[in-house]
């Protein structure tokens, strides 16, 4: 019998894990959309995969009175994170702080739709954490008895007015060349 269903290229073990039990092998991160790939600076992606929390969200009467599980995946892009050069957590997006912010959002939000919830996460990553580009996936696992999961995935780009350009620090040879240039031009520090 001919099977015309699309075949997945994912390994079998990646297809059969529960969303509440993330796979022990990390899933490959999907490529950024072509619309983002032409941007001048390549992006470093900070990601959180399989964040699980509970909240009251939905439009049906059965969803409005008790928390239900959500699984959240986020990717946040920065143009060449400064932390690559400085090795300081303050120069990148601290995913531990993002997780704390997600926990707070689960308690504080007042939206009903997963789309609005995902949009709120995207706005937080851009405005509070300085992400240039984000992808947010929010899933309700086992929402229906005959469905593994339902959810939404969105992508957003920071408005140009909110973008912070990263200027990498000069390397040692550039600094040395600048000092030599100053010395050669007669600018010698005084012995004060």
Task: Tell me what the structure shows.
By secondary structure, the protein is of the alpha+beta class. The protein has one domain (29-184): GTP cyclohydrolase I, C-terminal domain/NADPH-dependent 7-cyano-7-deazaguanine reductase, N-terminal domain (GTP Cyclohydrolase I, domain 2, 2-Layer Sandwich), CATH 3.30.1130.10. It is 28% helix and 22% strand. The protein contains 6 helices and 4 strands; from the N terminus they run H-H-E-E-H-H-H-E-E-H. The protein has helices spanning 12-15, 34-37, 83-86, 95-108, 114-127, 172-184; strands at 43-55, 68-79, 133-141, 149-157. It has a 4-stranded antiparallel sheet, covered by helices on one side. The radius of gyration is 23 Å and the shape is elongated. The termini are far apart.
């Amino acid at each position: 019998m001919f099977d015309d269903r699309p075949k997945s290229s994912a390994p079998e073990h990646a297809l059969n894990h529960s969303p509440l039990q993330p796979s022990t092998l990390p899933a490959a991160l999907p490529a950024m959309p072509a619309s983002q790939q032409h941007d001048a600076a390549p992006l470093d992606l900070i990601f959180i995969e399989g964040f699980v929390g509970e909240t009251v969200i939905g439009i049906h009467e059965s969803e409005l009175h008790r928390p239900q599980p959500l699984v959240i995946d986020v990717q946040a892009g920065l143009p060449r994170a400064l932390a690559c050069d400085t090795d300081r957590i303050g120069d990148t997006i601290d995913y531990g702080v993002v997780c704390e912010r997600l926990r707070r959002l689960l308690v504080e939000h007042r939206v009903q739709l997963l789309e609005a919830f995902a949009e709120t996460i995207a706005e937080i990553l851009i405005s509070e954490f300085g992400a240039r580009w984000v992808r947010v996936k929010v899933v309700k696992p086992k929402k229906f008895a005959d469905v593994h999961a339902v959810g939404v995935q969105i992508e957003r780009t920071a408005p140009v007015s909110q973008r912070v350009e990263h200027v990498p620090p000069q390397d040692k040879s550039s600094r040395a060349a600048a000092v030599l240039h100053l010395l050669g031009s007669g600018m010698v520090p005084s012995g004060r």
